[in-house]
């Protein structure tokens, strides 16, 4: 059983336990459930420069503890101050050290920025959870869902007013899982079965993603040159977590990256 299979198996058990604790009716009564979502896809469509989706992540299966002593409300507010276009907050506890509490604290500190609930969605119930904690976007990972599940979950997400980020790792997943209810296609440069990363994944898939979908690149991104290179391949957004979180000040790390992007763009206007 690879890492992804272990995560999904645990998630199925976790969701069933959550259903027994809190019903969908209970979730619908949460104050944030009626909140109007903020669109990330609309912002990215009109972006004239690369936009960073900054992630709050305490640990990962591949790296272990990345940064265990940080506060989500502080880090995410610093991200926003440094120019993040959106926030991604992990809510998986067992493998990534995240929680609903992390998400809610980040949401309270940043009420008007698009926020992605970063988790492994395997059940419609989790969409109601996402809505109840103030998420704007949910993640559907093609590698752990059947194409029919992607279609039904994405449709339900839209019914709830949530945007959908479809994450793919290869051309087969892209071809099988792309459907009308997807807002953003994210190419993960990390193979979730081996957790190895390669930027070539984004480059290879860039031409295969229809122009009607907003494209973002995820994982293994750490320098301005790579981001600008991928921007020229049609990627509008870049989801970055570990690169920032492994530093003492994640917000400052984002600010440094933004400065590097600006400096390179100013020296070479043709790159953007």
TrEMBL record:
Give a yes or no for keyword Lyase in this entry. Answer: yes
Q: What positions does the domain Indole-3-glycerol phosphate synthase occupy?
A: 4-256
What catalytic reaction does the record list? 1-(2-carboxyphenylamino)-1-deoxy-D-ribulose 5-phosphate + H(+) = (1S,2R)-1-C-(indol-3-yl)glycerol 3-phosphate + CO2 + H2O
Gene3D superfamilies, alphabetized: Aldolase class I
Entry EC number(s): 4.1.1.48
Q: Does the keyword Ribonucleoprotein apply?
A: no
Instruction: Cite the entry's keywords alphabetically.
Output: Amino-acid biosynthesis, Aromatic amino acid biosynthesis, Decarboxylase, Lyase, Tryptophan biosynthesis
Record SUPFAM superfamilies = Ribulose-phoshate binding barrel
How would you classify this enzyme at the top EC level?
lyase
**Gene Ontology biological process:** L-tryptophan biosynthetic process
Q: Which Pfam families does the record cross-reference, listed alphabetically?
A: IGPS
Question: By its UniProt entry, which InterPro entries does this protein fall under?
Answer: Aldolase_TIM (IPR013785), Indole-3-glycerol_P_synth (IPR045186), Indole-3-glycerol_P_synth_dom (IPR013798), Indole-3-GlycerolPSynthase_CS (IPR001468), RibuloseP-bd_barrel (IPR011060)
Recorded GO molecular functions are: indole-3-glycerol-phosphate synthase activity; phosphoribosylanthranilate isomerase activity
Name its pathway.
Amino-acid biosynthesis; L-tryptophan biosynthesis; L-tryptophan from chorismate: step 4/5
Name used for this protein in its record: indole-3-glycerol-phosphate synthase
Q: What species is this protein from?
A: Dyadobacter frigoris
The lineage is: Bacteria, Pseudomonadati, Bacteroidota, Cytophagia, Cytophagales
What gene is this protein a product of? trpC
């Amino acid at each position: 059983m690879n890492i992804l299979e272990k995560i999904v198996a645990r998630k199925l058990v976790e969701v069933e336990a959550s259903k027994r604790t809190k019903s969908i009716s209970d979730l619908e009564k949460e104050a944030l459930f009626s909140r109007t979502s903020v669109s990330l896809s609309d912002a990215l469509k009109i972006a004239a420069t690369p936009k960073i989706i900054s992630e709050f992540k305490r640990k990962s299966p591949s790296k272990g503890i990345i940064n265990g002593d940080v506060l989500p409300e502080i880090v995410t507010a610093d991200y926003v101050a440094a120019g993040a276009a959106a926030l991604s907050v992990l809510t998986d506890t067992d493998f990534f050290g995240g929680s609903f509490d992390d998400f809610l604290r980040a949401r309270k500190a940043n009420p008007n920025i698009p926020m992605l609930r970063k988790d492994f969605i395997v059940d419609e119930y989790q969409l109601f959870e996402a809505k109840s904690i103030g998420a704007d976007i949910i993640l559907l990972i093609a590698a752990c869902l059947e194409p029919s599940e992607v279609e039904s979950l994405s449709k339900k997400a839209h019914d709830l007013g949530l945007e959908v980020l479809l994450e793919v790792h290869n051309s087969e997943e892209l071809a099988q899982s792309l459907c009308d209810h997807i807002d953003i296609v994210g190419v993960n440069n990390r193979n979730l079965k081996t957790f190895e990363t390669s930027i070539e994944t984004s480059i290879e898939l860039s031409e295969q993603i229809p122009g009607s979908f907003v494209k973002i690149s995820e994982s293994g991104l750490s320098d301005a040159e790579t981001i600008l290179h991928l921007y020229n391949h049609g990627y509008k957004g870049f989801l970055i977590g570990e690169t920032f979180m492994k530093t003492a000040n994640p917000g400052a790390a984002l600010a440094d990256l933004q400065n590097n992007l600006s400096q390179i763009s100013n020296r070479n206007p043709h790159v953007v």
